[in-house]
Amino acid sequence: MATATTQGNGKAILLRIAELRAWVFLILLIVFFEVWSRAAYDVTFIFNPYNIKAITVAATAPLVLALGQTFVIISAGIDLSLGFVMGFASVIAAHLANYAAAQLGLPPFPAMLFGVLSGVGMTLIPGLVNGWLIAQLKVPPFIGTLGMYGVARGSAYLIAGGMTIAISNPWYSTIGNDRVLGVPVLVILAAICCVVLHYMLSQTRFGQHTYAMGASKAAASRAGINIKKLTIKIYVLSAVMAGIAGVLYTGRFSAGAPQAGEPLLLLSIAAVVIGGASLFGGSGTIWGTVAGALVIAVIDYGLVFVNVEPFWQFIAVGAVIIVSVLVDQAQRRFMGGRQVE
Amino acid sequence: MERRSLIKMMGVATAAATTSLIAGKASAQDKIVIALIPGLTADGFYVTMHKGAEAAAKATGAELIYQGAAEWNVSLQVPILDAIIAKKPHAILIAPNDKVQLIEPLRKANDAGIAVVCVDTFIGTGVFQTGAGDADFPISYVASDNVLGGRMAARALAKAIGEKGKVYVSNVKPGISTTDQREEGFKDEMKNFPGVEVLETQFNDDDANKAAAQFQAVLGRVPDLAGVFGANLFSASGAANGAKQAGVAGKVKMAGFDAPESIVAQLKDGTFELTIAQHPAEIGYFGFMAAYAHVTGNPAPTAIGTGFSVMTAANIDDPNINKYLYKSE
Prior knowledge:
Strand content of chain B: 15-25%
Shape of chain A: globular
Structural class of chain A: mainly alpha
Mean pLDDT of chain A: 88
Distance between the termini of chain B: 23 Å
CATH topology of chain A: ABC transporter involved in vitamin B12 uptake, BtuC
Number of helices of chain A: 14
Structural class of chain B: alpha/beta
Strand order of the largest sheet of chain A: 1-4
CATH architecture of chain A: Orthogonal Bundle
Largest sheet of chain A: 2 strands, antiparallel
Order of helices and strands of chain A: HHHHHHEHEEHHHHEHHH
Oligomer: heterodimer
Order of helices and strands of chain B: HEHEHEHEEHEHEEHEHEHEHEEH
Low-confidence stretches of chain A: 1-6
Number of domains of chain A: 1
Helix content of chain A: over 70%
Radius of gyration of chain B: 21 Å
Shape of chain B: elongated
Distance between the termini of chain A: 26 Å
CATH class of the largest domain in chain B: Alpha Beta
Low-confidence stretches of chain B: 1-13, 15-28
Radius of gyration of chain A: 20 Å
Number of strands of chain A: 4
CATH superfamily of the largest domain in chain B: Response regulator
Largest interface: A-B, 49 and 42 residues
Number of strands of chain B: 13
CATH architecture of the largest domain in chain B: 3-Layer(aba) Sandwich
CATH topology of the largest domain in chain B: Rossmann fold
């Protein structure tokens, strides 16, 4: 949480509380489902390793998208293209792995590597274009990334010919479905992403500048931060994380799907907001986002586990987002922080 | 399969006969133009339907126009329909995005003298040329019987689990006519198997990730789960992945719906026990033929039901089954 250099001490404390809030919320939810599960079925909810595995795996896809989105939202931007950049990467990763195996005759491991690197590598294009549109041409992030949402979507469908692209590569399946010492590989990879991005956000100048830019672009610019370069970096990071999410999807479902990330985009934004970030910029943390993604996964999983009518799931996640933002507003007012209207 | 090929041959024969009969008439005027507007373009099902319509266009020498929106949305489909009406084709084949909202836009086509054929989905009640109601003007409805598809899935899944145990339907969301009908057919047919208990349906919003988590949650509560019916591709592949993550792949039997090429490997490795393949190329082919017959002054049936194939690891290499995979090219 080394944000103190550019921000006041009070702000740092506020951030810490905001971050904790999401975790407190997560624990309350778990207790709630534990009690319900014991009362209704006489079984434990959270002390069952099977449930923990299922919940953490379910959380990985929206979480990896949300990690990049955290940087964007802290910088007072938004990236709406993520869902289809993820699909774009997923399709390329599948297509090129197939190409490498069939046309270049590569064995499975290098073919998988080729697919993964190209899938993630190609996301540099939408990331750079997003950043350039926003930083150089002053297009509002909402509009610029909405345009890229369409472009990435169309490109993904074109590459895939309107279908899902099947792959049969045992190494992809390893990424998506195997376990190391009982822990799903997906969860390990997502955890590595969390640690790396947490380090970048809290310990590097890049992270500090991101907070500064979100708090006040003008002040950050006066302090000598190159806003244009920073903006491009942030959107590239966000697109690359979507690329990683896309590759993980390809591994998990043994197929590249253009619409892989479509339902995940709004979940990723919800995870960041539940995690304590403000859509107005300047606040948010990676660990908060982790808690946010877990909150959504626990609600979705828990309601099915205790056998609640399916439509309550939408209401529950929606209500949690609203409550989360209300608590956030109240906290800011109480702490005498910046008022957001 | 035999019956199917026979009908197809009859279709070709009829078309050939029709072509020769009306050759004089057609050459006297412009080339016959028939448009196909799919439910959405980015879907293997409609891509394959397009192939079937192309084959019919080639057989008759008529021209096919193919235009559609990237997603299932009335407000995207109607402008495309209007643009096609402006081109004044002889007939329009359309998979309407909504039963009610497409009635007036399609009536405009009908009023302009363009014959309308509904493929896959329908407007009004789906029963046409009866003189009843305000949406019976399309000349024909060509589609799979989705209730029957659900029944076939139920029978095949019941057999795979030894006609006893607990199953559930993994579905997209309520309100979509086709997936609703598959669920309805599945549940209804399962009543004939007293040993099979159908649990509450799980709706996943077409999110494979969510369908996987839901599978695991149901399995957590019901450890003796025997099978799942995924009412569309993402529901089925999501539930199948949930089984893989939970280490019960192959033990809990998965029945899918629809047949992209990726299904072959998944049937063979046991991810799926079976899948119900529709015959979208037939829908495109016979839809086109119905329109062509009408335009050339010949009678066309008001309803044509196309078939299904049950695909399993055992029969997928059979060319008579394999040909029903949805292909992108």
